[in-house]
Design a protein that fits this description.
Length: 387
C-alpha cells in the first residue's frame, strides 16, 4: 500500500510539472528588407501639370531606423533615359516638405510635378532603391506608368425625374459621361444632393452600360425613401472623375422631393382597467402601427394626449410611444416602454395604473409626426378605470 501511494505521488507530481509547463509562443516573423508600393501614381497628366504624392513602404529586419536612403528614379520609354530622381523621406514632414505623415513608420514619401518638359507623353517607368546603415541595397523591378495629355471627362446629360413622388418605386437616376481616353479612364461619377448651396449627401453612381468607345451610362436606383427627412426643391449635381484626378464640369438638375404624412392605424389597447389594491400596480400595454411613404426612417414621433375624467387635459401630455424593442422597466427610463420588436413600425407604451388613480373614462387621442413636420391625427379611444 505504501509503495502504491508513493507511485501515485510521483505520478501526480509529474502531472503537475507537465500541466504547469509554460506555453511556447512562436516569435514574431522578422520582416525582410523589402519595398512595396503604398501610394504610386500610375497615370501622369502632363497636359495640365499636377502635384502628385508618391510613397513606398520599406521594411527591414532592424526596423525603419536602419534605412538610410530611399530614392525613386523615373525613366523614359526606353527604360534607360533618366527623367527625374526623387528622394523619399520618412520624417513626418518635419525636416523636408515631403508630405510624409508619420515619422518612422516605414512609409517613405515625397511629391513631384508632372511637367511635360520632364515627362514626355508615353510610357514612364519607376524604380525604387533603398539603402540601409550597412550599405546593403535593394531595388524594385521597373514599375510601368503612363504620361498622357489628359482631357477632363464630360457629363453630357442627366436622366432624373423632375419630381420624386411620395411612395415612388425605385427609379434609375443616370448620367451620360464621355471621356476621350475611353470610359475605362473614369474612376468615379458622383451625385450630390444640395439645398441652398449646402451639400446634404453624396452618392457614387455605378457603371450601367457602354454607349460608345468613349461614352457610358452611370446611375443608381432611388425610391421614395430618398425623400426621408427631406421635402420640397433640391439641386442634384453630377460630376465625373478620371484616373488623372481631373474633374468634369458640374451638371445640375432641380428635383422636387414630395414628402407626405405618415399613417397611423391598428390601435390595440384595453377598454377598461381595474384599480389595483394598495401596494400594487396594474399594467396595460398600448400599441399602434405606423407607416410612412418615405419609410420608417422618416418617422419622428408617435404620441397621444389624454383627457382626464374631469374633462381636463393631463398635465403629462404628450405621452410618447416607442418602437425600440426595450422591455418595460418600472424603475427605468421612459424609453423602456415594453415595445416588443424594434423598428417594425409598431409603437408601444406601458401604462402603470397606481392605487388611488381617479376612476372614470380617460380619452386618448393619437398622433404621428414625421421628420419634416407632417402631422397625422390618428384614432381616438377611451380607457375606463373602475374600482
Amino acid at each position: 500500500m505504501r509503495k502504491l501511494l508513493k507511485t501515485l505521488t510521483v505520478f501526480t507530481f509529474l502531472l503537475l510539472i507537465f500541466s504547469c509547463k509554460e506555453e511556447v509562443v512562436p516569435p514574431e516573423t522578422t520582416p525582410d528588407f523589402a519595398i512595396e508600393g503604398f501610394n504610386v501614381p500610375l497615370r501622369l497628366n502632363v497636359a495640365k501639370p499636377r502635384d502628385y504624392t508618391i510613397a513606398f513602404r520599406v521594411t527591414h529586419p532592424e526596423g525603419a531606423a536602419a534605412i538610410t536612403d530611399v530614392t525613386v528614379t523615373f525613366l523614359g520609354s526606353d527604360q534607360a533615359t533618366q527623367l527625374l530622381q526623387l528622394p523619399l523621406y520618412d520624417d513626418g514632414g518635419f525636416i523636408h516638405n515631403d508630405r510624409d505623415v508619420i515619422a518612422g513608420d516605414g512609409i517613405f514619401t515625397n511629391h513631384f510635378i508632372s511637367d511635360s518638359l520632364v515627362f514626355p507623353p508615353g510610357d514612364v517607368y519607376m524604380q525604387v532603391r533603398a539603402v540601409d546603415n550597412t550599405q546593403n541595397s535593394i531595388q524594385t523591378d521597373l514599375i510601368d506608368a503612363l504620361a498622357i495629355l489628359n482631357a477632363a471627362p464630360k457629363v453630357v446629360s442627366a436622366a432624373v425625374p423632375d419630381t420624386l413622388y411620395s411612395g415612388s418605386q425605385p427609379l434609375l437616376f443616370s448620367v451620360a459621361v464621355q471621356d476621350s481616353n475611353d470610359v475605362e479612364d473614369i474612376t468615379n461619377v458622383i451625385m450630390r444632393l444640395k439645398r441652398g448651396g449646402n451639400e446634404i449627401a453624396s452618392y457614387n453612381l455605378e457603371f450601367q452600360s457602354k454607349t460608345a468607345a468613349d461614352s457610358g451610362i452611370y446611375g443608381a436606383f432611388f425610391d421614395s425613401t430618398f425623400a426621408a427627412e427631406r421635402d420640397s426643391f433640391y439641386t442634384l449635381e453630377f460630376q465625373a472623375v478620371d484616373f488623372s484626378d481631373d474633374l468634369s464640369e458640374v451638371l445640375s438638375k432641380t428635383i422636387f422631393l414630395e414628402n407626405k404624412s405618415p399613417m397611423i392605424f391598428n390601435l390595440a389597447m384595453a377598454d377598461s382597467l381595474k384599480l389595483p389594491p394598495t401596494g400594487q400596480v396594474n399594467l396595460t400595454l398600448i400599441e399602434i402601427q405606423t407607416e410612412d411613404p418615405q419609410g420608417l426612417m422618416d418617422m419622428d414621433s408617435v404620441y397621444f394626449n389624454s383627457i382626464l375624467p374631469n374633462g381636463q387635459p393631463s398635465s403629462n401630455n404628450p405621452f410618447l410611444l416607442y418602437d425600440n424593442g426595450l422591455p418595460y422597466n418600472s424603475g427605468g427610463s421612459p424609453e423602456e416602454a415594453g415595445d416588443l420588436v424594434a423598428g417594425d413600425g409598431i409603437y408601444s407604451l406601458t401604462i402603470a395604473l397606481q392605487p388611488g388613480t381617479p376612476v372614470g373614462a380617460y380619452t386618448f387621442s393619437f398622433f404621428a409626426r414625421d421628420k419634416v413636420g407632417n402631422l397625422t391625427t390618428g384614432p381616438v379611444d377611451s380607457l375606463i378605470v373602475f374600482q
